[in-house]
């Protein structure tokens, strides 16, 4: 949570910090109707990527990059895989990492 303030101070206001993207590997399961990615001693809720979540910037348009169709479909495809098998033992998920109400959320952009 302190990254934004530290980054702004370090960049002297010359850069807009849009967030951090992470790649996490672990097991995925359904929990309370949503997806949870977990590893040894940690877990994070997975959320779909919305049009405003993407961290990357489109310099030609001077705005946040618009998610591709594949990026927008990544969460649903992963959820369908988990529903079909009950859980996935090993998966790698990439996307913006956010905190909401003290809980970590990874917005699914890419699944490997």
Q: Report the order of strands and helices.
A: HEEEEEHEEE
How much of the polypeptide forms β-strand, as a percent range? over 45%
N- to C-terminal distance: 27 Å
On the 0 to 100 scale, the average pLDDT is 91
Poorly predicted ranges (pLDDT <50, ≥5 residues)?
none
Number of strands: 8
Spatially, the strands of the biggest sheet line up as: 1-2-3-7-6
Description of the molecule:
It is a single chain. With 112 residues, the protein is α+β, with helices and mostly antiparallel strands. Helices cover 23% and strands 46% of the residues. The chain is built from 2 helices and 8 strands. Strands 1-2-3-7-6 form a 5-stranded mixed beta barrel. Strands 4-5 form a two-stranded antiparallel ribbon. The chain is globular and about 50 Å long. The chain starts with a helix and ends with a strand.
